[in-house]
Amino acid sequence: LHGRVFSLCVLGVTLQLLQQLVGMNAFMYFGPKIFESIGFSKNLFTTINNFVNFLSTFPAVLLADLAGRRQLMLWSSIGMFVACMLMGTFGTIFVEQDAATGAYFVSNDSARWVITAST
């Protein structure tokens, strides 16, 4: 592999690695359990999550064609960074574990909605 082909391979591998590190697979697997532990229905979470993923596909394809993939990747990476920072910050400050049951809960209602909306 030389020149442009090597650069494209490195870019492809890097994007796949970053996609895995974002944690979407873990969120899809553990999401229902996490949301059930903070007071939401796990079936409702799964339904809403799948519905949002399905509906988001159409504007994403349209936006990729209109704005270009490079611009979309740059702006979406900024959005992902902000969302991850919000979830991490509010999760660190307001998510606590119940000593008796071991379940996690969010101690602040506003933080609960920020964490939910950031996902």
Summarize the main sheet: 2 strands, antiparallel
Rg, Cα atoms, Å: 18 Å
Strand order of the largest sheet: 1-2
- The outline comes out as elongated
Which regions are unreliable across 5 or more consecutive residues at pLDDT < 50? none
The overall pLDDT, averaged over residues, is: 84
Give the helix level as a range of percent. over 70%
Question: What distinguishing features does this structure have?
Answer:
single chain, 119 residues, mainly alpha, elongated
Outline the fold blueprint:
Elements: H1 3-22, H2 24-37, H3 42-67, H4 69-94, E1 95-97, E2 104-106, H5 109-118
Antiparallel strand pairs: 1-2
Helix pairs in contact: 2-3, 3-4, 4-5
Structure description:
The radius of gyration is 18 Å and the shape is elongated. Strand 1 (95-97) and strand 2 form a beta hairpin. The chain is 81% helix and 5% strand. The protein contains 5 helices and 2 strands, in the order ααααββα. The model has no long low-confidence stretch (mean pLDDT 84). Helix 2 (24-37) packs antiparallel against helix 3 (42-67), helix 3 runs antiparallel to helix 4 (69-94) and helix 4 runs antiparallel to helix 5 (109-118). It is mainly alpha-helical and 119 residues long. Strands 1-2 form a two-stranded antiparallel sheet.
